[in-house]
Design goal:
about 475 residues, 10-stranded mixed sheet, globular
Length: about 475
């Protein structure tokens, strides 16, 4: 654990000229303030830096806008992207009057979730391992006016470009839905992903694997090694930052949108998770698929509260264009061993009790990791404490079931508004230990409805003209 003195010595050792202070807005994007190293001393770890909270989405009203960011010394890293040597620190957000942590600071919510876990006596650590998929494009253009709307994406890998005159067109472009694991030259992004991996490793983030994903046009996955909840949420922010910046310096662009392409697989963020006490994995046992009773009840909690936590794990209107049958998206709230058509999968290709875990496959990488991980943990803990029965596993291809066979299997909401309504009606489990507050949940729901759901509902989309212009 680094102390403030350690951080200052680290900055001096590396000749840092600037200090970049990063914090997460309510929606889930990093914001930052950069100061010269001459303005940064040990006292800043107590006094922090003031900023205007009214300018941050979902935060303070203008009449109470002053907020405070205080750097966490344990998060010190060298930022690999600025031209000049820059120390980077992740900050927690505080009220400058009370000096209390801000209830809408996502990092504070994640810390409270871990503290609640410990207070229950169930375990010491919640480990998360997200698999955040993304698309790499060569060009993106979009616009929205009162009388027009369009978007246009392009990729040299896009199957739609097999007939384009590229002088010459060499033809190695992944077929639709056949982009999983091809070698180069069909996989043209090996070196780019390796560059991303090397930058992540320089930051101390362990990478387990990288590969092309199922969709054509540059869908990729890089897997980080699991870590404790708050560290993993920090790492997820670094992950997005590194992936986007490495792409940009190679004249490419990355999106973590869940469903940028029509009739192609979307990008998910399958979340592996387990609870430990000391050096013991509490999810290992002798019930179904090598799980413990505790793990089964955790699954029960996730399945029970899934419609509500989707408002946090799948928090965009675009998320629900991925969560449709037919594109390997886990829409059915069931669990199964090995089975990727169920919302919860128990990996079986593990050879020790320490690796036993569950994988919740519904989330996507548009989420705010701090709040999404906290919500999943709180749902799982509710399952453990109330011994919620997950029911019987569904060990069959759910995608191949008939509507009659599916009628008794619950599914995720069909829209962001549906998920937000579920959160409104089912959030008591999130309030335990004051992890989430009524204020934070109310602001989340209202912000999403007013800033995303209603604006999307109000705008005609191009396909409506194809359907209805001559009606």
């Amino acid at each position: 654990m680094r102390t403030p003195q350690d951080v200052l010595a680290f900055a001096k050792e590396h000749g840092c000229q600037m200090v970049d202070l990063k914090f997460l807005d309510f929606v889930g994007m990093w914001q930052h303030l950069t100061v010269p190293i001459s303005e940064f001393d040990e006292g800043r770890f107590e006094d922090g830096f003031g900023f205007d909270g009214s300018s941050i989405r979902g935060w303070q009203p203008i009449h109470a806008s002053d907020m405070l960011m205080i750097p966490d010394p344990s998060t010190a890293k060298l930022d690999p992207f600025p031209k000049y040597s820059t120390l980077s620190l992740i900050c927690d957000v505080f009220d400058p009057i009370t000096k209390e942590p801000y209830s809408r600071d996502p990092r504070h919510i994640a810390k409270k979730a871990v503290a609640f876990l410990k207070s229950t006596g169930i375990g010491d650590h919640a480990y998360f391992g997200p698999e955040a998929e993304f698309f790499v494009f060569d060009d993106v253009r979009f616009d929205q006016t009162r009388h027009s709307a369009f978007y246009h994406l392009d990729s040299s890998e896009g199957r739609w470009n097999t007939g384009r005159d590229e002088k010459p067109n060499l033809g190695y472009k992944p077929r639709y839905k056949e982009g999983y694991f091809p070698v180069s030259p069909t996989d043209s992004l090996v070196d780019l992903r390796t560059e991303m991996c090397l930058e992540l490793q320089k930051l101390g983030i362990q990478v387990e694997a990288q590969h092309h994903e199922v969709a054509t046009a540059g869908q990729c996955e890089i897997d980080m090694r699991f870590s404790d909840l708050v560290t993993m949420a920090d790492n997820l922010m670094w992950f997005k930052y590194v992936i986007k910046n490495v792409a940009r310096r190679n004249n490419k662009t990355v999106t973590f949108m869940p469903k940028p392409l029509f009739e192609e697989n979307g990008s998910g963020m399958h979340c592996h998770q387990s609870i430990w006490k000391g050096d013991k994995n509490l999810f290992a046992g002798d019930t179904y698929a090598g799980l413990s009773d505790m793990a089964m009840h955790y699954i029960g909690g996730i399945l029970k509260h899934a419609p509500a936590i989707c408002a946090l794990t799948n928090p965009t209107t675009n998320s629900y264009k991925r969560l449709v049958p037919g594109y390997e998206a886990p829409v059915n709230l069931a669990y199964s061993s090995r089975n990727r058509s169920a919302a919860i999968r128990i990996p079986v290709a593990v050879y020790s009790a320490k690796a036993r875990r569950i994988e919740f496959r519904t989330p996507d990488p548009s989420c705010n990791g701090y709040m999404a991980f906290a919500a999943m943990l709180m749902a799982g803990l509710d399952g453990i404490e109330n011994r919620i029965d997950p029911g019987k596993p569904l060990d069959k291809d759910i995608y191949g079931l008939s509507p009659e066979e599916l009628k008794d299997i619950p599914s995720v909401p069909g829209s962001l508004e549906g998920a937000l309504n579920a959160l409104r009606n089912d959030h008591e489990f999130l309030l335990r230990g004051n992890v989430f507050t009524e204020d934070a949940i109310e602001m989340w729901v209202n912000y999403k409805i007013q800033s995303e759901v209603r604006p999307v509902q109000m705008r005609p989309v191009p396909y409506e003209f194809a359907l209805y212009y001559d009606i």
